[in-house]
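Project standup — Tuesday

K.O.: blocked on the structure for the chain from last sprint. Re-posting the sequence here as requested.
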Amino acid sequence: MLEVRPGVYQKNAQIAHIYGVKPKAARYRAEMTPEERDSFANLLLLCLAHHEEVDGDELRYSPQVLKKWKVAHEGENNAVLNRLIVPSGDVLMNFLAEIATPPLDRLEEITKRLEETGTASAETVRELKQIIAAMSDSGVDTHTARALAYSAEIFSSSDLRQSAQGLAHAADVLPGILRDMQQTVNRLSQFH
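H.V.: unblocked you, prediction finished:
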């Protein structure tokens, strides 16, 4: 999900298949049943550019490479997700839109947890890294990187509520989180 304006989110992904659905599709295998081809285990969510790239070069993007991506992206949830039955691509995308928590909301939740506990757990650090990875894909300039890095540095202050407000403002104004914030998260993980 991508925030196109404050509070308004649009899908930023397409459903791609590890093994193609139609006979002339990339990586198609005739021996697969329709159920296998349409199962979540055979699906990847990719942006338009990467979907076209993956389907345009079957040799570079083999089923093994795509499965490796899928497992890396889904992490420990892969086994559970692969058992999902997907009635249609539209149903899946609508469901994802419903359950997706906007990155700013997730950051606010993390800030509240940090405020309550005063420590960053491994789960908190992992969640921050996921948010950074998701938001970094939007492409951000140097000015944005510096502004967000400054906001991330505020986390070390004693007033976490003020820190959350500063970070929330930066996230509203700027389109992503970058390398400098990743370094800050890595520093937080040293305290775990």
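K.O.: great, moving the ticket to review. The two ends are 30 Å apart (CA to CA). The chain is about 55% helix and 10% strand.
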